[in-house]
């Protein structure tokens, strides 16, 4: 028998029943909830007089709507000025209380973006199925968990039945082999992958990220990569278990202890693709060739190396691609062949479930240290992914570094990743953002998003425009670096 | 869920690839805790010339006269014809809710994003994949003749054009069954309650660390 892929193993370990037509019922181990996609699900449950199947599988926290300024946060829910946002957060609190679901509320130190909170608590474990009403649930696949986003009807379905109707995906392996250049991070890897295979390249597939460059990454880096699998069209991103996975989980609050820990670790060791496993498709990328990436357009596949330039639609043969590029350039206010380093920036956002973990903040702080945010930047903000990340960063003094450099240091939440709270771009403003989507209006009506790594975002804040982090980090610290007005 | 067996309707062409869920329904409208009322803000950024916010009286807002759904010839449309990778982006079910609330029952495109595919069917919207060339041809036909309607037959998996041409399409068998019968997924799954309990018990024995409250569940 041919070997199994990691995805095949996870699938068969959770298969409750297969129907003749190929749909299957799969069992769900962990269900994460937040305030945006759950109210209608609880409403449905209530209308049908159903109860949650298994309470301890669920974990909730508000993240999308919460304010990130200290003054508002100090007031708890009452500090949410937008009435509609307040109702959503309040509704989550009420529903969790009514049904007995564990929730980290707005001012709980453990509150944060669901995809930061789950792994941080050890609530995401290898071999689990993890779902959440949010497409970036793919993040949790970094732990060799079968994790993907679901819609609100499915949230209701999982609450009521502990199962999900699913269809088996195909297997795609993306191997990133070799050594990354200095200053190149997980974010650059995943943007380069999307640039290569496109935003629909992974549609219908579970992507397993493998290869020596992936093995070298920390869990934070692997989460960054799996997080954006969805931007490559795949609902699922995966990385096999190794020592890095296991070391990360040891002694997390929800992780098993004592004898169960040993049994779990023994089982987890098998959560890798077999050597002779067959993949439906494979893409190999040379790590050494990956440069710092910057998106210039309105889709994550519209990406270029920082030393590159914006494309010229005149040179594009395919009409529909050409049309997309013209529209994107118009929306982004960029000229054909404009150099990426010439794009002027207005705001900088370091945060989101892609890049708001401690390692991300350390990378950004390294660049920020001793420097000053350029005068031309109206707002540069750092938003930690959770209360615990924030606490850790403060213990390491990162908050001081950011504040001294002129960054704002905020309270945890999704913030300007999707601008559902007060943190937004104004129309026409360009933002260097460590988030995952650069769609039109994503960070505010008319806002222009450029996706980059945390270090690139910090460097851009200091320079006032994009700079190649590799040149930047080679320079000795220059507190008096000339600023461009 | 509304069932759908056959549907005849006016076709509106949205000539754009990769229409993402943010474009279908911008995030400021996701704050609602209801399932209905999203129709007036479907394609909000394209439809209106100003920025929309929840709870606003849309009749007072300036319409974008160039946007297809604002043109008089497409009033009353219920079939959307569009380009590849429709519905990409987030998992928000508000996207199909908005399409449905507006009055769309069928969307035709060369391809659809994965999560959107499931969400649409669950909300009674039929997604019809047709190849790029056929879609291109339909675009030309729709633009050329006002009042262009298509006949969609889910049972037979066909789309019939005004000239009588019959195009067949693929549809997931399970989704088809549910849509034809207006079946609710949860009720269907609970018919397998026994199998789920059995699985759960074995799963718990094999991986006890996945269950935090063995005590509460043991009863
Ligand atoms: S940080 Fe952004 S992408 Fe992540 S869950 Fe929040 S809104 Fe979604």
TrEMBL record, chain A:
Q: Which cofactor does it need?
A: [4Fe-4S] cluster
Catalyzes what?
(2R,3S)-3-isopropylmalate = (2S)-2-isopropylmalate
- Could you tell me which InterPro entries the record lists for this protein? 3-IsopropMal_deHydase_lsu (IPR004430), Acnase/IPM_dHydase_lsu_aba_1/3 (IPR015931), Acoase/IPM_deHydtase_lsu_aba (IPR001030), Aconitase_4Fe-4S_BS (IPR018136), Aconitase_4Fe-4S_dom (IPR036008), IPM_dehydratase_rel_enz (IPR050067), IPMI_cat (IPR033941)
GO MF annotation list: 3-isopropylmalate dehydratase activity; 4 iron, 4 sulfur cluster binding; metal ion binding
Q: Is 4Fe-4S one of the keywords UniProt gives this record?
A: yes
Q: Which positions are tagged coiled coil?
A: none
Q: In which pathway does it act?
A: Amino-acid biosynthesis; L-leucine biosynthesis; L-leucine from 3-methyl-2-oxobutanoate: step 2/4
EC number from the UniProt entry = 4.2.1.33
For this chain, the family text in UniProt reads:
Belongs to the aconitase/IPM isomerase family. LeuC type 1 subfamily.
Instruction: Give the matching HAMAP family.
Output: LeuC_type1 (MF_01026)
Question: What job does the chain carry out?
Answer: Catalyzes the isomerization between 2-isopropylmalate and 3-isopropylmalate, via the formation of 2-isopropylmaleate.
Descriptive protein name: 3-isopropylmalate dehydratase large subunit
TrEMBL record, chain B:
Documented EC number(s): 4.2.1.33
A GO cellular component annotation here is: 3-isopropylmalate dehydratase complex
Q: Which reaction does it catalyse?
A: (2R,3S)-3-isopropylmalate = (2S)-2-isopropylmalate
Q: In which pathway does it act?
A: Amino-acid biosynthesis; L-leucine biosynthesis; L-leucine from 3-methyl-2-oxobutanoate: step 2/4
What Gene3D superfamilies would the database entry show?
Answer: Aconitase, domain 4
Could you tell me which residue ranges the Aconitase A/isopropylmalate dehydratase small subunit swivel domain spans?
1-130
Q: Name one GO biological process term.
A: L-leucine biosynthetic process
Question: Keywords of this protein's UniProt record, alphabetized?
Answer: Amino-acid biosynthesis, Branched-chain amino acid biosynthesis, Leucine biosynthesis, Lyase
Q: What class of enzyme is it?
A: lyase
Pfam families referenced in this protein's UniProt entry, alphabetically: Aconitase_C
Q: What one GO molecular function would you report for this record?
A: 3-isopropylmalate dehydratase activity
The cross-references to PANTHER family, in alphabetical order and at most eight, read: 3-ISOPROPYLMALATE DEHYDRATASE SMALL SUBUNIT, 3-ISOPROPYLMALATE DEHYDRATASE SMALL SUBUNIT 2-RELATED-RELATED
The record ties this protein, via NCBIfam families, to: leuD (TIGR00171), PRK01641.1 (NF002458)
Q: Subunit details for this protein?
A: Heterodimer of LeuC and LeuD.
Family assignment? Belongs to the LeuD family. LeuD type 1 subfamily.
Its biological purpose: Catalyzes the isomerization between 2-isopropylmalate and 3-isopropylmalate, via the formation of 2-isopropylmaleate.
Its recorded name reads 3-isopropylmalate dehydratase small subunit
Q: Which organism is it from?
A: Modicisalibacter muralis
GN (gene name): leuD
